[in-house]
């Protein structure tokens, strides 16, 4: 018997699994029905306690190939029914064992729909998973919890290179790692790009000195305003190279250009969000995972909203008219989630090639 | 894109009569379509020959034509109505085929009619096997490797290249004879040679076998601008090899990783885009269980049974959105009606498990082949929703109404271990229960998986149920049932009744213990979005151990109990009645609630009632809903036997039954009370008695005089009824019926060979309105649901009609009917007898409502609410007959059910019905036959084959004479031919099956026989020649008539010298004028 206690005192009973340690974090829910392994290993959830709205979790176990990063960055994982007898040809271990190995606390047997509805009404709340009955001190601990500098926990320690997946004439793309999902790297590699991945605090001059044709800004966790050094770097890079930003990368670009970001009530987390590409006039289903968004009222000069979330009309993409740069809030690399916006990587590389030709 | 502004008048094609594979889901789809069209200000002209549908109501479409769904008839409607567009993609395969035919004939072009939604070329690309395969190849989507061969060696070459096993499918053989799966070359050579021999064109299709792979389906929707989404994916519990309509299906998929799901999801979007579908579409895949290999099995370029299921499973109304797309809207312009704030371009997400379980007709067809495979056999299905798989499965088992409330089957418990092991490899309708029994005996998951290929994940869930069952059995008694055990059992979906049996107690004791412990169900909302947004369309399912979300109940709530899955004897008519009941209650100012579990229907559309509960229709489940809703009344008379059976439970739980009270219901249903009632009223009924043993039955029959009608005392749709002609027959019947434990007595009645008459009446307890009298064409002995029924009566003397009215009024009053009552009579030798009284709505209510213009259900509801019949504006007594003749024709699905006897009897066999509507009876029959695809034969096209039982030979002679006089060649089997020739009617003698089956087959295949008239001798033995002849008729598609009365009717149509399309179309609006 364990409890998730929220900062407003509401409680959700369950049973511990995985590491079974008491943890504190920000509670969010995600509505994706498949891809819990991808969700677990998405560094953007760093510091959070993630509730799965789909009730049967662990059905396909955990395997060696579906992880989006080296491990799990979230604090806690809340599910309704935990499957202890997974079935899939790739399965190597149970979810329970994996979370134990990763040192992450799981809570199962929870009324996840009730929790989700609570977050929907009251917004993201901080919470604490405790064994047994929670005390007032646990509520205090939840209230005292602050998420800051999450990127530093997830970014790589030193630059590294990845070869192009395709043949010859590779474009060289510099990737700024804010807590990246491997799907972004795979999407670029598959399109024939040679990648050099940089820690989030790398100065622009170092990146430019290495030579690259374009810059990819990845996803990552936390409040975008926590990253002044990266913002500085991005501002400089955007003057020199074509840039494509995803998720946190998208928010950082807006900040770098003088725009603003705001925290959302409960964010967008799932694989079913409709996004309209205003230039193409088409609507696509996208994977999303963010708690902050670019403020449409205070866009930087030269920025245009290019994509809109069709559920709530929030900003999903920005195009910079005065320079070769664009960004999206959702995840065109999918993993998990729908793949139909992968064309954005092609758009980016077309932009890189066009810029290259212009400068040649 | 806004609506196309040139669309003003749309012709919508329905799917016609209910047959296996095409059921109520198209009434749901068509009704949604019509409502959208009307909302958009478009005039709707509807054509559908099925009168039992909501879509054929005059308040759903502007003009309704209950006309045959043939190109000729539809062309006449187009010529009369001049619609600017046609919507065909919501009428199933019937609608799609008709649209293609109208296009091919140039009708659409001639009248300037535009096909809305997916265009003809796209439909053809999806439907044509070769074109489809090429299209898939061109976009890189894999289809199953196959080759067409004309010799054995080519098939071996193919198998050597692609690997074993391979499936051999002979071309143009009937009933799938001659094919099979070959595991190796020796088997292949054998099966292939067999197949070539049995194929008319000496041709086999050899296909790589993916039997045992996972079967996964996607429901996809695309708009005219190219936006597309998947509404839902579904995984079949039964691996590839079983038709998805016969599979247990779960949504969403459970054993797929995200990369596997996304691979198939992306493929679905590619396919729908490449085909250029505009609207809903279903894609089925076979997915390897141990690699990323997959094949596209099938694409349905239209709304389907699966899309009805997906709509109910997710809350996303596919048919509605498809219609809006057809009008020109794009997905980002269409609002999600459930949340009211999101759009149709967002994919639904589920936070529960949905399970579909097929409902098969084998409780009726005892001797039929219960194997399931590539041909669908289920007549209907149920859907259940749970927070886990186990509870969804157990709810499903309860919803089926097959007498089971858990996974225990006594017949399987009786099998030896070896026999059970064998049974595991048999793929039949009992499969999931066989798995449970094997697990109960300790079989390993791996072992069962090896035998069945069912994914271990599913097997484990079944094992969880079995283990709970065993834990409960291990308890010393109900006193030992603690809070934790009970809550755990309820969370897994166990019914109180099942728990009681396992712990050796009774349902009431367990229920009271449970309520004392505070273990009560909660109700959760289905909201399309996993709780992310607030929902406004309240649609609920029950769960234990979670928070409840019910909205505040209205002040004046009425709960309407639905009719569950579509089965023979209880079809779509009862859904029609339930929906009309809800509408009438709404109009009367009540807050309405529906409880039902059939995903195909209009009643389970989440905007039919104010609140919808998707639950099993058992006493416990219904009681739970009542406890939350606290209704002022519960309606049990519109949901067929399913609902009426719940009346007692409703009353015992302390709720008021709206309409006829329990006393009246009991009197009608209980044999003894009913006899007393008729005796008291001085109304005759056929003499009869009740017995328990075969000896008693034999002596009773001898006393009454043969033939006698034997049946169980509580009856559902003529189940287990038979006419016995001699003692041997009686004893055979009693031995079959006693296979099942018989706690109720058997009824033995004198069988009167008379004319059957039927009425539906509305009664307020005192005053009675009879909208019309129906007369059956076939004499008594054929179940009323299988007889051709004609309104107004064509042969009834005014005296008899007055007696019918008089008896109806007296019975209805005496039973204190408040609402509807259905009474069946027999006229025999100038006397009128009552044979059955049903204190509820019946299957004839929709059609009589439509042709008389009397809203029978609404009046019934108003009478239940206390309104007096004379105040309703239709008078009392027998309503004056309409100047039109309406003929209700039964429709059968024999081609889907091998080994089922085709001849008709007291047990109902039809799956649906069609209507013929015309100014004269002969023309109405003509249309009726056209709607049931019974071609009227013409002497230049071929002859008539007779095979007649001895007791019918004299009567058949007259028929044969007339056919011969009209110029038909007469064929007959030896005995019949002898009898005809002896009486100077020349007949070619043809062999009977068994004598020279090949020669007979050749004759049937040649097209020389256009009609077969065959009356059965008695008995059920499938080996009999008559039985085999009738089966061959079905398999060769030759119309086969098994009653001389029907044959005479058809002969009348032949004499008319017309085709149905020569008779002008008659709309329901024409009748009202």
Molecular structure report:
- The complex is a heterodimer of chains A (360) and B (1073).
- Chain A folds into two domains: 2-147, Glucose Oxidase, domain 1, CATH 3.50.30; 151-359, Rossmann fold (3-Layer(aba) Sandwich), CATH 3.40.50.
- Helix content of chain A is 26%, strand content 32%.
- Chain A has helices at residues 36-40, 95-102, 112-122, 136-144, 150-154, 182-190, 204-210, 228-240, 248-256, 343-359; strands at residues 2-6, 11-18, 23-30, 48-52, 56-57, 76-78, 81-82, 105-108, 125-131, 160-162, 171-177, 193-199, 214-217, 243-246, 261-277, 282-294, 303-309, 315-320, 325-328.
- In chain A, the strands form three sheets. Chain A has a ten-stranded mixed β-sheet, sandwiched between helices. In chain A, strands 1-2-8-6-4-3-9 form a seven-stranded mixed barrel.
- In chain A, a hairpin with a 4-residue loop joins strand 15 (261-277) and strand 16.
- The longest helix of chain A is centred in the last third of the chain and has 17 residues, at 343-359.
- Chain B is of the alpha/beta class and 1073 residues long.
- Helix content of chain B is 37%, strand content 20%.
- Chain B is built from 38 helices and 39 strands.
- In chain B, the strands form seven sheets. In chain B, strands 27, 28, 29, 30, 31, 32, 33 and 34 form an eight-stranded mixed β-sheet that branches. A seven-stranded antiparallel β-sheet of chain B has the order 14-13-10-11-12-15-16, sandwiched between helices.
- In chain B, strand 35 (943-947), helix 33 (953-965) and strand 36 form a beta-alpha-beta unit.
- At the A-B interface, helix 3, strand 15 and strand 16 of A face helix 9 and helix 17 of B.
Q: In a nutshell, what does this entry contain?
A:
The complex is a heterodimer of chains A (360) and B (1073). With 360 residues, chain A is an alpha/beta fold.
């Amino acid at each position: 018997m364990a409890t998730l206690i929220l900062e407003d005192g509401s409680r959700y009973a369950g049973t511990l699994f995985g590491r079974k340690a008491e943890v504190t974090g920000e509670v969010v829910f995600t509505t994706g029905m498949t891809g819990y392994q991808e969700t677990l290993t998405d560094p953007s959830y760093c510091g959070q306690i993630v509730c799965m709205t789909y009730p049967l979790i662990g059905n396909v176990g955990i395997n060696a190939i579906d992880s989006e990063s080296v491990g799990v960055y979230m604090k806690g994982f809340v599910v309704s029914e935990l499957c202890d007898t997974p079935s899939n040809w790739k399965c190597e271990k149970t979810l329970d064992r994996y979370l134990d190995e990763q040192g992450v606390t799981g809570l199962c047997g929870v009324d996840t729909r009730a929790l989700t509805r609570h977050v929907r009404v009251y917004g993201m709340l901080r919470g604490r998973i405790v064994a047994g009955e929670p005390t007032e001190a646990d509520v205090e601990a939840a209230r005292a919890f602050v998420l800051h500098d999450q990127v530093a926990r997830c970014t790589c320690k030193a630059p590294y290179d990845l070869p192009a997946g395709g043949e010859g004439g590779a474009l060289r793309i510099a990737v700024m790692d804010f807590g990246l999902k491997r799907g972004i790297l795979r999407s670029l590699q598959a399109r024939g790009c040679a990648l050099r991945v940089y820690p989030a605090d790398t100065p622009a001059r170092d990146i430019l000195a290495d030579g690259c044709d374009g810059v990819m800004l990845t996803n990552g966790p936390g409040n975008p305003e926590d990253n002044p050094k990266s913002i500085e770097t991005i501002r400089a890079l955007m003057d020199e190279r074509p840039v494509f930003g995803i998720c946190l990368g998208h928010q950082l670009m807006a900040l770098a250009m003088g725009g603003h970001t705001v925290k959302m009530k409960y964010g967008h987390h799932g694989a079913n969000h409709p996004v309209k590409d205003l230039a193409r006039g088409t609507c696509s289903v996208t994977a999303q995972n963010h708690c902050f968004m670019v403020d449409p009222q205070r866009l930087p000069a030269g920025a245009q909203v290019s994509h809109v979330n069709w559920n709530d009309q929030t900003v999903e993409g920005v195009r910079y008219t005065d320079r070769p740069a664009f960004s999206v809030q959702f995840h065109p690399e999918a993993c998990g989630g729908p793949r139909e916006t992968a064309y954005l990587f092609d758009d980016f590389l077309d932009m890189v090639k066009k810029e290259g030709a212009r400068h040649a | 894109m806004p609506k196309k502004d040139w669309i003003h008048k749309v012709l919508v094609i329905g799917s016609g009569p209910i047959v296996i594979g095409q059921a109520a889901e198209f009434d749901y789809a068509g009704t949604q379509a019509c409502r959208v069209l009307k909302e958009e200000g478009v005039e709707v002209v509807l054509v559908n020959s099925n009168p039992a549908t909501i879509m054929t109501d005059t308040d759903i479409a502007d003009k309704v034509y209950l006309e045959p769904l043939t190109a000729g008839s539809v062309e006449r409607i187009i010529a009369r109505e001049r619609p600017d567009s046609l919507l065909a993609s919501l009428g199933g395969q019937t609608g799609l085929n008709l649209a293609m035919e109208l296009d091919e004939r140039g009708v659409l072009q001639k009248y300037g009619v535009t096909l809305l939604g997916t265009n003809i070329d796209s439909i053809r690309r999806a439907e044509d096997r070769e074109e489809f395969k090429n299209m898939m190849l061109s976009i890189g989507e894999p289809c199953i490797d196959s080759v067409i061969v004309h010799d054995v060696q080519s098939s071996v070459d193919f198998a050597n290249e692609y690997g074993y096993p391979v499936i051999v499918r002979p071309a143009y053989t009937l009933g799938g004879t001659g094919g099979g799966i070959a595991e190796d070359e020796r088997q292949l050579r054998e099966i292939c040679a067999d197949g070539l021999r049995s194929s008319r064109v000496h041709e086999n299709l050899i296909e790589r076998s993916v039997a045992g792979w996972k079967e996964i389906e996607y429901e996809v929707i695309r708009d005219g601008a190219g936006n597309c989404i998947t509404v839902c994916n579904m995984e079949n519990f039964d691996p590839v090899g079983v038709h998805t309509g016969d599979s247990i299906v779960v949504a969403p998929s459970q054993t797929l990783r995200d990369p596997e799901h996304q691979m198939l999801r992306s493929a679905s979007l590619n396919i729908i885009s490449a085909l250029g579908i505009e609207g809903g579409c279903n894609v089925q895949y076979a997915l390897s269980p141990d690699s990323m290999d997959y094949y596209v099995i099938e694409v349905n370029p239209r709304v389907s049974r699966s899309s009805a299921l997906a709509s109910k499973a997710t809350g996303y109304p596919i048919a509605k959105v498809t219609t809006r797309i057809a009008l020109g809207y794009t997905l980002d312009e269409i609002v999600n009606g459930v949340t009211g704030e999101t759009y149709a371009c967002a994919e639904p997400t589920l936070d529960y498990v949905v399970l579909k379980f097929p409902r098969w007709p084998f409780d009726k067809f005892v001797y039929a082949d219960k194997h399931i495979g590539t041909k669908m056999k289920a007549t209907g299905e149920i859907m259940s929703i749970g927070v886990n798989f186990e509870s969804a499965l157990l709810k499903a088992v309860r919803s089926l109404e097959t007498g089971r409330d858990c996974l225990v089957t006594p017949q399987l418990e009786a099998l030896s271990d070896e026999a059970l092991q064998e049974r595991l490899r048999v793929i039949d309708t009992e499969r999931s229960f066989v798995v449970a029994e094997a697990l109960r005996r300790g079989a390993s998951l791996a072992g069962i998986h090896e035998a069945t290929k069912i994914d271990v994940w599913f097997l484990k869930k079944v094992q969880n149920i079995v283990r709970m069952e065993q834990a409960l059995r291990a308890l010393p008694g109900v006193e030992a049932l603690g809070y934790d055990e009970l809550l755990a059992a309820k969370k897994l979906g166990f019914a109180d009744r099942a728990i009681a049996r396992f712990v050796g107690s009774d349902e009431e004791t367990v229920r009271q213990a449970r309520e004392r412990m505070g273990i009560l169900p909660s109700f959760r909302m289905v909201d399309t979005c996993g709780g992310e947004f607030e929902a406004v369309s309240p649609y609920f399912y029950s769960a234990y151990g979670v928070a409840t979300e019910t909205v505040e109940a209205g002040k004046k709530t009425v709960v309407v109990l639905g009719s569950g899955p579509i089965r023979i004897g209880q079809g779509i008519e009862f859904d029609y009645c339930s929906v009309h009941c809800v509408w009438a209650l709404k109009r009367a100012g009540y807050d309405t609630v529906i409880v039902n579990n059939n995903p195909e229907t209009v009643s389970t559309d989440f905007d039919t009632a104010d609140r919808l509960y998707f639950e099993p229709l058992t006493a416990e489940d219904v009681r739970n809903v009542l406890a939350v809703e606290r209704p002022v009344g519960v309606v049990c008379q519109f949901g067929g036997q399913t609902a009426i059976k719940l009346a007692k439970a409703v009353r015992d739980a302390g709720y008021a039954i709206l309409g006829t009270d329990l006393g009246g219901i009991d009197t009608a249903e209980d044999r003894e009370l009913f006899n007393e009632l008729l005796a008291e009223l001085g109304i005759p009924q056929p003499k009869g008695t009740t017995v328990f043993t075969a000896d008693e039955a034999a002596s009773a029959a001898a006393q009454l005089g043969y033939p006698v009608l034997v049946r169980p005392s509580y009856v559902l749709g003529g189940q287990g009824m038979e006419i016995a002609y001699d003692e041997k027959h009686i004893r055979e019947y009693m031995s079959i019926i006693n296979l099942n434990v018989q706690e109720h007595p058997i009824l033995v009645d004198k069988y009167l060979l008379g004319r059957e008459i039927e009425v539906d009446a509305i009664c307020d307890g005192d005053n009675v309105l009879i909208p019309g009298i129906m007369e059956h064409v076939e004499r008594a002995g054929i179940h009323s649901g299988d007889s051709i029924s004609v309104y107004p009566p064509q042969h009834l003397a005014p005296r008899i009609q007055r007696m019918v009215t008089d008896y109806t009024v007296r019975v209805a009053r005496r039973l204190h009917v408040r609402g509807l009552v259905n009474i069946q009579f027999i006229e025999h030798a100038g006397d009128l007898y009552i044979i059955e009284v049903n204190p509820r709505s019946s299957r004839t209510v929709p059609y009589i409502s439509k042709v008389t213009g009397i809203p029978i259900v609404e009046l019934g509801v108003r009478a239940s609410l206390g309104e007096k019949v004379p105040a309703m504006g239709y008078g009392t007594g027998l309503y004056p007959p309409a100047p039109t003749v309406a003929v209700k024709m039964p429709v059968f699905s024999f081609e889907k059910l091998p080994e089922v006897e085709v001849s008709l009897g007291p047990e109902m066999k039809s799956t649906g019905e069609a209507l013929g509507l015309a100014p004269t009876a002969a023309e109405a029959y003509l249309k009726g036959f056209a709607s049931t695809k019974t071609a009227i034969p013409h002497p230049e096209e071929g002859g008539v084959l007779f095979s007649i039982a001895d007791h019918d030979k004299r009567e058949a002679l007259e028929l044969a004479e007339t056919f011969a006089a009209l110029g038909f060649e007469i064929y007959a089997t030896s005995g019949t031919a002898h009898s005809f020739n002896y009486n100077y009617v020349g007949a070619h003698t043809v062999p009977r099956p068994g004598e020279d089956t090949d020669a007979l087959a050749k004759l049937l295949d040649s097209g020389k026989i256009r009609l077969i008239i065959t009356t059965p001798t008695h008995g059920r033995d499938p080996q009999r020649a008559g039985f085999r002849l009738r089966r061959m008729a079905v398999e060769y598609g030759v119309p086969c008539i098994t009653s001389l009365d029907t044959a005479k009717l058809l002969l009348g149509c032949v004499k008319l010298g017309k085709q149905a399309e020569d008779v002008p179309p008659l709309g329901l609006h024409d009748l009202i004028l």
